[in-house]
Every structure is written in structure tokens, then in C-alpha cells.
Amino acid sequence: MQTRAAILWEPHTDWSVEDIELDDPKAGEVKIKLTASGLCHSDEHLVTGDMVIPKEIAELMNLEQFPLIGGHEGAGEVVQVGPGVTTLQEGDHVVLSFVPACGRCPSCAMGQQHLCDLGAFLLAGRQISDFTSRHHSKSGKDLGTICCTGTFAPYTVVNEASCVKIDDWIPLDKAALVGCGVTTGWGAAVNAAAVQPGETVVVIGLGGIGMNAVQGAAMAGARHVVAVDPVDWKRERAGVFGATHTAASIEEAQAKVGELTWGANAEKAILTTGVATGDLIAPMMSLIAKGGRGVVTAVAPMTQEDVKLNLFEMAMMRKELVGCIFGNANPRRDIPRLLRLYQDGRLKLDELVTNTYTLDEVNQGYRDMRDGKNIRGMIIY
Ligand SMILES: NC(=O)c1ccc[n+]([C@@H]2O[C@H](COP(=O)([O-])OP(=O)(O)OC[C@H]3O[C@@H](n4cnc5c(N)ncnc54)[C@H](O)[C@@H]3O)[C@@H](O)[C@H]2O)c1
Ligand SMILES: [Zn+2]
Ligand SMILES: [Zn+2]
């Protein structure tokens, strides 16, 4: 069929919205009619070159990362089912999980679906089943899909491993947020930081991920949730998601946390800035008490290796520094679980969407993100 998509032909260019040709689903695949797609900062890392596979590795894999269709935070309806699909049928409502979950690999078997072996395909852009493309440009060029999804298009074809079936009555434009941002941020607090009742938690960066880390920390029973962002209106909004205090910078947060905890410091800190840079780690860890934990959720440039960190304090104060992908969640359990909390009025989704856009306005959406105008921008089809 013919449809449209926002394509990134190479880094450091705009998204190009074009007509594309979309094939029927092959074995194990389904065609999805999307309702909405969130504008997550991770796609911006493709544009800035942070998340470009180094040339030597791409050659080794015989892989062309570009051109690709962006978008990995989507939800919609199954409109066509390929041969051999056993878990979905036409008409099912699904959230696309940005990490596929096969359910059979060692990580999935251990209840760590965010580490599913199929994650190896996230940046490869080809179909999981046979490493070919279902998406093609008008000129006949194969198009990749970021995170095996490609939600910057009203229709896409994905593997059933990327689909999590949800209750029909959940609004799909809100459910889309749980395909990445909500689960990532909420899980960064609840799973990765393992926030306990009464703790002090600092969240650094209040975008789509950070606001959900605030929301997760509050739900886990944190006593103080200190929300840090240089953008004034985002700090003001953070209270809606459960922040108890705010700071405009990490330095300001250090003073505030010292005061709140009588010098003991925070049990947990979570880094959710637009980009993770090495110079942010030491300041984040300086917010943490002995025995505390720092969680890196923000994405760094792929080749970044230099980090500023006080190693003496790390050992002698037994501080932990941990990574976190997709909120260390199990999408097949956690996506429906989070949506039921939304249904019960316990989890905020409506409040996350600041501005909506058409597919043609995708570059405006990202300009607004860069300009600090959005908690989450969302494309509605
Ligand atoms: N680990 C994962 O699985 C995962 C999943 C999704 C997104 N991410 C990453 O999480 C990060 C956040 O994504 P997002 O969509 O929320 O981005 P966003 O651009 O919407 O939000 C980032 C926020 O950080 C703030 N900020 C920037 N520098 C800061 C600083 N020094 N101190 C305090 N605040 C600062 C910005 O003002 C902005 O509000 C990105 O790097 C994204 O790629 C990671
Ligand atoms: Zn994302
Ligand atoms: Zn798996």
C-alpha cells in the first residue's frame, strides 16, 4: 500500500515527510494503523549524530543505518496479520514496545524483557524475521525503522514481538506514551532506583522521561522529590506529577537537598537530561548519600567514554551508579499495568502532552522540544 512517513536520510538534516510504499506483513509480522506517536528525545539523537552506528561496525554488519523512518512511541490497531502470527488478530489495540520482547530468550525468561536479545535490532532498522525491509521510498530505496517500529507514519509493519495488546477502551493517543516515555521514566524510579517510601529522590531533567520519573518516585512513596530543570514552567508543572521541591540547576539542588536532609543527602538521583554527558555524573553523584544510587537514563553519544566521577567516594561511601533501559521494565506486564493505573486515575498521561502536531509538522515538534516548550509533543494521525 501507499502511505507516508517522516524519513531521516542522514544525520544533521531535517525529517523529510514523503510518500512511501509499505509491503504486506510477512511471517510473524502485523500491519498497524497508528493513532499517535510521541516525539521522544531519542530520535533527536539520530539527527544530532549521537546515535549513529560507527562506520567500522556498520560495515562489519553489512548495514546501512540511513535512510530510516523515525518514531518509537506509538499505539494503534492491528489491520492485517501475517502468516504464523499467534498472539494478535485484526482489530486488536496495541502499544508498540520500543524494545521488542520475544518471551523466550534468557533475559525474557528471567523477567528482564528490557534486555531481550531482539534488542540487537533496535538500531539496525530491519525486520526481525528476515533482516529485510517492508518500507521503501518512492525511488525504491529500502527504509529502516528505528527501534523496529517506525511510528512517524500512519501505517507501519512490525514483528509481533514489538506489540503489546491492551484493553480496547484505553484511548490510543494516551496509550502511545507508555511505549517509551512513561515506562522509561516511571521504571527508572520504581525499578532502577528502587525508590522506597520515605526516601529523598532527585530527578535531573523534566522532559517526557523525567516527569515520569517524578511521577514514579512519588507513587513509590518518596518523601521528597526534587525536580531539576532550567526551564521555569517545567519546574512549576512538576508539582502536578508529585514533585515536592524544585531547583533550576544541579548546584541549586545540592543546596536544597542538603537542607532537606540535614546534610545526609538523597538516597537516589536519576539523570533524565536531553543528553547524558560525562561532566554531569560527578555532580549527580554528589547529591547522593552513602549507600545511595545514581541512575543514568539519559542517552549519551555512542562513542562517549570520558566520565568525571569521584572514585574514592564511590567505594568508601558505597555509592552505586547504574544504567537503565526502558525503565528496566517488562513491557508485557508493565504496559498493561501502567494503563490500568491510568484508567483508575492514579497515573497521569493526559497532563504529559503539551502540544500535538500533524506528521507534516514533525520538525516543528522537535524545534519546540529543543526550545523547552514541550513536556511531550505528540503526532496525531
Ligand atoms: N534509557 C532509555 O531507555 C531511554 C528511553 C527514552 C529516552 N531516553 C533518553 O532520556 C533523555 C530524556 O528524554 P526526553 O524525551 O525526556 O527529553 P526532553 O528533551 O523532553 O527533556 C530533557 C529535559 O532536560 C532538561 N535539561 C537539559 N540539560 C539539563 C541540565 N544540565 N540540568 C537539568 N535539566 C536539564 C531540558 O530542559 C529538558 O526539559 C534523552 O537522552 C533520551 O534519549 C532514554
Ligand atoms: Zn523514547
Ligand atoms: Zn527475549
Automatic annotation (TrEMBL):
Enoyl reductase (ER) domain boundaries: 12-375
A GO BP entry: formaldehyde catabolic process
Domain of life: Bacteria
Pfam families linked to this entry: ADH_N (PF08240), ADH_zinc_N (PF00107)
Key words of the record: Metal-binding, NAD, Oxidoreductase, Zinc
Necessary cofactors: Zn(2+)
PROSITE patterns in UniProt: ADH_ZINC
CDD domains reported in the protein's UniProt record: Zn_ADH_class_III
GO molecular function: S-(hydroxymethyl)glutathione dehydrogenase [NAD(P)+] activity; zinc ion binding
Gene3D superfamilies: Medium-chain alcohol dehydrogenases, catalytic domain, NAD(P)-binding Rossmann-like Domain
SUPFAM superfamilies: GroES-like (SSF50129), NAD(P)-binding Rossmann-fold domains (SSF51735)
Sequence similarity: Belongs to the zinc-containing alcohol dehydrogenase family.
Name of this chain's protein: S-(Hydroxymethyl)glutathione dehydrogenase / alcohol dehydrogenase
Source organism: Thermomonospora echinospora
